[in-house]
């Protein structure tokens, strides 16, 4: 059984194997979501290798834990903490049991997980390797045998030939180490990699709020007061340094430690700084953060604070400014905790404990933040985001160069396959992720193949003008004009007259969607559209997506089966929104995808500006364009490709794609469409022929059925 210790800045734990097992040559296959991983496992099961390959599917504790006491916590961080606490207790129990063989010792009463017995897990590891199973099947096996699937699966890694795992487990070095993943000379497949750079950046970016900083300070102060007499002078020094750093960080948010961050007001605004400038501003540039970081790792102080907080309930914000020994403060956390228990009715207490929205110790986040500061000096920035109150303000570490963290994977592995259905455009991808990580052009092999659907099943058109001859250019300056919005309404209305089933219309932003729908409402366009299609709109809340999709699909089914005035449904959505990724509009659900305008990212955002400036400084121009400008275009077209890729999901499927904006016809833009769409794309300078081609396309399909 692995023994646990704290990882260096990752948000997972870090366990080392007691025994170094030999790792057979294997394929690590990772993808973005658990359903994509499950799909891959099901394909392996159906393949000729389904009965012979040794495959293990890794997951998080959220997916694989079977201990109800832990799963009820819900929050992944709290589940990790609770499980690791129990693993620690188990090791201590074992050590004490050994000690008690030689001398009498106190009975150990701390809880351990009943599902983590070594013999059972070793048996389950062997069982896992005999048959290919997805996460659900692993859970069933774990419940049947009362054995932890999470650790059993990890134990199976060395002997497995294929390891299936989520992005985080592969792309984050600490998590990799924690899971026992060794990439040396192995083959890595990264699927659904169209957003790989963003994913790496997000995994390594950290955000921490003023409230969390104050809470971490408060907890550490209380910890320091309680154990002061038992702390070594050196450890006490590091604790004081961490408290000092926290005070500096809160100062950058306009706050002062010792005052309530919920009432301390601040002037709203944001500032973006290099790491050196940030440390200088926080007045902590004299602290050796590398040593502090080492102390975090060695002392496991973040995890100790979790245990301390759980024991004494010191999660509130106090007004300590130092850790002077004051007897009356030693038990402050405990007293406050008891007071809160007394002041609440029983039911409320239970709800509060079960639904605690914050992790047990925000010090974990502080540790991640400091780790980020020390690991990417030239390639990182800090965004200071000030809100009305210090508690709501935040510090965000921004990684500008994803290659810093990807290079280790490229160096260690034998081969890395980066795959995806909508990988275009790849030029900036190669420049920013591969060349920057030190890979030579000759080591990169590009392979692109056609889509499984025949070319006659797709009709992509670029529409340069609308039915009344209005040029379609949805720039910020022009798109709000009533003429442009009305022309767009006429296009959708015409399409709805001839397209069967579902039409999905993507707008470039929520703001624009609101504006144009408001205009259509007041001018009667929506009423006109409703005579042909029932109208649906992407919901505001993520938990309503499923319901809207279900209603949308039922409506289309009903219309297709019964006929009548309405021929299907029209769904309004936003590029990059809740329905532009991971949701499939196959068959009648998406017979036509309409893109209104080009979804360029907000070029005024300080984060994007900094990234553009960084690329312009460090990268060579791509196709005659500055790398910063190329990034903006690439982000736009990646978002477009994701959205239009929602339709045509299998060989027999067919759909038309209407790109409304003459700028799609520019050569550089056109080249950024996936090959299987680009090769069939026609640019229409007038609406008539475009409309006729869509009508013909669906007539032919109808005749063939
Ligand atoms: S050992 Fe396994 S079953 Fe037990 S708490 Fe941890 S993850 Fe859950």
UniProtKB/TrEMBL annotation:
InterPro entries given in the database record: ATP-dep_Helicase_C (IPR006555), DinG/Rad3-like (IPR045028), Helic_SF1/SF2_ATP-bd_DinG/Rad3 (IPR014013), Helicase-like_DEXD_c2 (IPR006554), P-loop_NTPase (IPR027417), RAD3-like_helicase_DEAD (IPR010614), Rad3/Chl1-like (IPR013020)
One Gene Ontology biological process: nucleobase-containing compound metabolic process
Cofactors, names only: [4Fe-4S] cluster
Location(s), subcellular: Nucleus
Pfam families in the cross-refs: DEAD_2, Helicase_C_2
GO MF term (any one): RNA binding
PROSITE patterns given in the database record: HELICASE_ATP_BIND_2
Keyword annotations from UniProtKB, A to Z: ATP-binding, DNA-binding, Helicase, Hydrolase, Iron, Iron-sulfur, Isomerase, Metal-binding, Nucleotide-binding, Nucleus, RNA-binding
A single Gene Ontology CC term: nucleus
Domain of life: Eukaryota
Ribosomal protein in keyword set: no
Xref: Gene3D superfamilies: P-loop containing nucleotide triphosphate hydrolases
Ranges where the Helicase ATP-binding domain occurs: 1-243
Family that this chain belongs to: Belongs to the DEAD box helicase family. DEAH subfamily. DDX11/CHL1 sub-subfamily.
Record's protein name: Helicase ATP-binding domain-containing protein
């Amino acid at each position: 059984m692995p023994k646990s210790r704290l990882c260096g800045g990752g948000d997972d734990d870090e366990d080392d194997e007691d025994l170094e097992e030999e790792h057979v040559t294997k394929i690590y296959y990772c993808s973005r979501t658990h359903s994509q991983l499950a799909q891959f496992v099901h394909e392996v099961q159906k393949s000729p290798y389904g009965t012979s390959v040794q495959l293990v599917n890794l997951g998080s504790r959220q997916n694989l834990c079977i201990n109800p006491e832990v799963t009820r916590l819900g929050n992944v961080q709290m589940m990790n903490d609770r499980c690791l606490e129990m693993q620690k207790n188990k090791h201590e129990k074992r050590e004490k049991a050994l000690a008690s063989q030689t001398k009498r010792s106190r009975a150990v009463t701390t809880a351990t997980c009943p599902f983590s017995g070594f013999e059972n897990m070793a048996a389950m590891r062997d069982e896992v390797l005999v048959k290919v199973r997805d996460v659900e099947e692993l859970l069933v096996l774990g419940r049947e045998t009362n054995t932890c699937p999470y650790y059993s699966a990890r134990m199976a890694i060395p002997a497995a030939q294929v390891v299936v795992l989520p992005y985080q487990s592969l792309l984050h070095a600490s998590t990799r180490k924690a899971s026992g993943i060794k990439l040396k000379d192995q083959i890595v497949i990264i699927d659904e990699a169209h957003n790989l750079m963003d994913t790496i950046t997000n995994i390594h970016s950290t955000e921490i709020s003023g409230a969390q900083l104050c809470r971490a300070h408060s907890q550490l102060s209380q910890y320091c007061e309680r154990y002061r007499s038992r702390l070594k002078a050196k450890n006490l020094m590091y604790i004081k340094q961490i408290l000092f750093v926290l005070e500096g960080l809160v100062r950058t948010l306009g706050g002062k430690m010792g005052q309530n961050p919920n009432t301390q007001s601040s002037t709203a605004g944001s500032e973006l700084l290099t790491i050196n400038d940030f440390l200088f501003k926080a007045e902590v540039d004299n602290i050796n953060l590398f040593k502090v970081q080492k102390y975090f790792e060695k002392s496991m102080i973040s995890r100790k604070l979790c245990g301390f907080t759980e024991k004494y309930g010191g999660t509130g914000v106090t007004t300590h400014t130092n850790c002077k020994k004051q007897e009356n403060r030693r038990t402050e956390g405990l007293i406050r905790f008891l007071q809160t228990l007394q002041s609440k009715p029983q039911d409320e207490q239970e709800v509060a404990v079960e639904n605690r929205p914050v992790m047990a110790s925000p010090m974990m986040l502080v540790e991640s933040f400091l780790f980020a500061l020390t690991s990417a000096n030239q390639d990182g920035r800090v965004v200071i985001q000030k809100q009305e109150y210090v508690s709501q303000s935040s510090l965000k570490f921004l990684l500008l160069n994803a290659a810093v963290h990807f290079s280790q994977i490229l160096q260690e592995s034998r081969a890395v396959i980066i795959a995806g259905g909508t990988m275009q455009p790849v030029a900036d991808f190669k420049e920013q992720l591969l060349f920057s990580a030190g890979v030579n052009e000759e080591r990169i092999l590009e392979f692109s193949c056609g889509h499984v659907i025949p070319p006659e099943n797709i009709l992509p058109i670029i529409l340069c003008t609308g039915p009344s001859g209005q040029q379609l250019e949805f720039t910020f300056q022009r798109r709000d004009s009533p003429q442009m919005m009305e022309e767009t309404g006429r296009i959708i209305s015409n399409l709805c007259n001839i397209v069967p089933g579902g039409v999905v219309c993507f707008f470039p932003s929520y703001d624009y969607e609101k504006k144009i729908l408001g205009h259509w409402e007041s001018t009667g366009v929506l009423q006109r559209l409703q005579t042909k299609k029932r109208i649906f709109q992407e919901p505001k809340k993520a938990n309503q997506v499923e319901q809207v999709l279900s209603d949308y699909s039922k409506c289309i089914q009903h219309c297709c089966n019964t006929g009548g005035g309405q021929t299907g449904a029209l769904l309004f959505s936003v590029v990059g929104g809740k329905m532009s990724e991971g949701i499939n509009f196959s068959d009648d659900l998406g017979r036509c995808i309409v893109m209104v305008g080009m979804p360029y990212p907000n070029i005024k955002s300080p984060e994007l500006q900094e990234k553009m400036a960084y690329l312009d400084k460090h990268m060579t121009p791509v196709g005659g364009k500055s790398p910063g400008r190329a990034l903006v275009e690439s982000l736009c077209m990646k978002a477009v490709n994701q959205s239009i890729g929602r339709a045509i999901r299998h060989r027999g499927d067919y759909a038309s794609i209407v790109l409304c904006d003459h700028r799609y016809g520019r050569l550089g833009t056109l080249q950024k469409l996936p090959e299987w769409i680009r090769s069939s794309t026609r640019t229409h300078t007038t609406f008539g022929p475009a409309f006729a081609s869509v009508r013909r396309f669906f007539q032919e399909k109808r005749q063939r059925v």
